[in-house]
Amino acid sequence: MFYIANVSPRSTGKTTNSAWMGHALHERGRRVIGYDADDSRQFSRWQAAGAYPFVVQQAATAAFHMNVPQMVPAGFEDGVGVVDVGHLEDHQAVGASVLRLADLAIVNLPPSMNDVERMEELPLREFIENVAPLRLDSKAPVTWVLLCKAPNGVSEIKQVREYLEDEGYNVFTTVIPAVVKYMRTHEGSEILAKGSVFDELVTEMEERALLP
Ligand SMILES: Nc1ncnc2c1ncn2[C@@H]1O[C@H](COP(=O)(O)OP(=O)(O)OP(=O)(O)O)[C@@H](O)[C@H]1O
Ligand SMILES: [Mg+2]
């Protein structure tokens, strides 16, 4: 199982992005399991009643790194686990546990300096680096920033991207726009990722060899 951890310091769009990313990966033929590592349980509720073509397991536990690998169903060994992690300002124990296992950490970040400050105040970089000694390879997980909920035509996108890259962060070229289509993601809503920016995101991940 290849684990993608969607993290952020505070509420930014992680559950929305997890849902769409899960669909985009599934539509590309990958076997997907969603993991809801947030006590508020949005992700698992959204999928309730079989609205999604993949399961979402509740996994808001500080023992994520121990329990989840033992519960991977047969046939999903080469699959992708998309983990919606409760925001790190308030869910540090669960977040650290998921990051101990994550193959790819995605920082879901609106392109505003305010959100960048929240990331630095956590501080996010240290939070991710601190799990390194607890991982099999003793390295921090590969980390990429996904700019999301980006208002149209805002010059801050470029400014935030340059700032983050200067700070040494990897930043996806693909940006998730703030649009009604994504805002409307909710319990039971159907998602078709084909033709959406999340399909482009999977293409970018594949081109950058971030996925197995
Ligand atoms: N790309 C987008 N365009 C417009 N609205 C969005 C977008 N992404 C998320 N939203 C809206 O922003 C709000 C927060 O999104 P979401 O619940 O996905 O964030 P979250 O990081 O999971 O929050 P929390 O940490 O509280 O669980 C929701 O109202 C959602 O509809
Ligand atoms: Mg959420």
Automatic annotation (TrEMBL):
<dbReference type="InterPro" id="IPR027417">
    <property type="entry name" value="P-loop_NTPase"/>
</dbReference>
<protein>
    <submittedName>
        <fullName>Plasmid partition protein</fullName>
    </submittedName>
</protein>
<dbReference type="Pfam" id="PF01656">
    <property type="entry name" value="CbiA"/>
</dbReference>
<keyword id="KW-0614">Plasmid</keyword>
<dbReference type="InterPro" id="IPR002586">
    <property type="entry name" value="CobQ/CobB/MinD/ParA_Nub-bd_dom"/>
</dbReference>
<feature type="domain" description="CobQ/CobB/MinD/ParA nucleotide binding">
    <location>
        <begin position="12"/>
        <end position="183"/>
    </location>
</feature>
